[in-house]
Design brief:
390 residues; Chorismate synthase, AroC fold; five-stranded antiparallel β-sheet; 12 helices; 20% strand; binds flavin mononucleotide; binds the ligand C=C(O[C@@H]1CC(C(=O)O)=C[C@@H](OP(=O)(O)O)[C@H]1O)C(=O)O; chorismate synthase activity
Length: 390
């Protein structure tokens, strides 16, 4: 896989860093667009007090010269403003694990007596670095007309009812203007009430996000090997986001309850085009993109750190006790939209580069054009220039 990235950094350490390797040379980089994505990740009802402290901005340390990628690894850094409060301070050890967070599992695995090192790295603070990486991937995808967006479809028990006639671009736009990023404004009001009630009642909520990629050409990913399937690569990437407990492609779990004649996307011929009138598959068949929008749904569990204490055991004494509260988000769902988009953008940029090859953006674009033509030669009916490409 041609594109890869690593992140490092603790939640309350000096900074988060990432290295993105494999983007071709010559891609114009818009740093402010990266910062806008970082700001989006900080916004949303249900965010805790930490988001008032941070003001995430990216510093590009390498791989970009005079506003364009050089082809070298891109190193980037995002400061943790909260670090100033912890620097040089003696912090009392944390010995009571929170059910649902990494605390106990990491203590067992790494032998931590103080639970802080586990939470420092498991914390979703790390996703700021992913969003910066994803913003660069989005810029690469945009050069090929591919966009990635998302919106919230469920918070706690409240579900959005979105008309199929509401275009994806309109959903993205409405979501961006909404405090819980839900394009169904009636459901949004009930979602807001649910988040506020959970906060009042010293509790937390999860929910579901739908991520969508538009303009993805057919032929990304492959059926020939398990780790080349685009669906599997998306599920891995999305499933790696902290608190994500389920990922569906297309209609996912709902398909399991249907008959085969009602679960797929029949193929019709309209003039010299082959068309689908549905997209239950979510744009991927056999691990290969089919030219339809790629749709992934991500289920996020409620936050583990609750103001209401939960039963636990103090590992320093072995005595039963209750969890303690320092600070936390209440509902991470609206804030997680840009993270979902970032992980989708990374996977799609990787799969596109794999398809195109090329050391420079120009080479990639020439190949993209050539592929468009060649694909048509191979697969078109009656020589139509629009059989499969969106
Ligand atoms: C955007 C976002 C914000 C989060 N904020 C918190 C938080 O404030 N408190 C908390 O306990 N968990 C929070 N989480 C979830 C934890 O990071 C996650 O539950 C923990 O790392 C354990 O991993 P797991 O839930 O995947 O098992 C957040 C997750 C996301 C995506
Ligand atoms: C810092 C971020 O989210 C954090 C994710 C998080 C967790 O346990 O995942 C716990 C909280 O950390 P703190 O206790 O420092 O407030 C969140 O604020 C962020 O998203 O940038």
């Amino acid at each position: 896989m041609p594109l890869r990235f690593l992140t490092a950094g603790e939640s309350h350490g000096p900074a988060l860093v990432a290295i993105l390797e494999g983007l071709p040379a010559g891609l114009p980089v818009d740093v402010e667009a990266v910062n806008r994505e970082l700001a989006r990740r900080q916004r949303g009802l249900g965010a805790g007090p930490r988001m008032k402290i941070e003001e995430d901005r990216v510093v590009l340390l390498s791989g970009v010269l005079e506003g364009r990628t050089t082809g070298a690894p891109i190193a980037l850094q995002i400061e943790n403003r909260d670090h100033a409060k912890w620097r040089g301070r003696a912090v009392a050890p944390m010995t009571v694990p929170r059910p649902g967070h990494v605390d106990l599992a990491a203590a067992v695995k790494y032998g931590y007596r103080d639970l802080r090192p586990g939470l420092e790295r498991a914390s979703a603070r790390e996703t700021a670095a992913r969003v910066a990486v994803g913003a660069l991937c989005k810029q690469f995808l945009k050069a090929f007309g591919i966009t990635v967006g998302s919106y919230v479809v469920q918070i706690g028990p409240v579900r959005a009812a979105l008309s199929e006639d509401l275009p994806y671009e309109a959903r993205f736009e409405r979501a961006e203007a909404d405090p819980v990023r839900c394009p169904d404004l009636e459901a949004s009001a009930r979602m807001r009430a649910a988040v506020e009630a959970a906060m009042q009642e010293r509790d937390t909520l999860g929910g579901v996000i739908e991520g969508v990629a538009l303009g993805v050409p057919p032929g990304l990913g492959s059926h020939v090997h398990w780790d080349r399937r685009l669906s599997a690569r998306l599920m891995m990437a999305l499933g790696s986001i902290p608190a994500v407990k389920g990922v569906e492609i297309g209609e996912g779990f709902a398909l399991a309850a249907r008959r085969g004649t009602e679960a797929h996307d029949p193929i019709f011929r309209e003039g010299d085009r082959l068309v689908r009138r549905t997209n239950r598959a979510g744009g991927i068949e056999g691990g290969i993109s089919n030219g339809a929008p790629i749709v992934a749904r991500v289920a996020i569990k409620p936050i583990a750190t609750t103001l209401t204490p939960q039963p636990s055991v103090d590992l320093s004494t072995g005595q039963p006790t209750e969890t303690r509260y320092e600070r936390s988000d209440f509902c991470p769902v609206p804030r997680a939209c840009p993270i979902v988009e970032a992980m989708m953008a990374f996977v799609l940029a990787d799969a596109l580069l794999e398809k195109l090859g090329g050391d420079t953006l120009e080479e990639c674009q020439a190949r993209f054009e050539a592929l468009r033509q060649a694909r048509l030669g191979d697969l078109s009916i009656d020589g139509s220039p629009h059989v499969f490409w969106p």
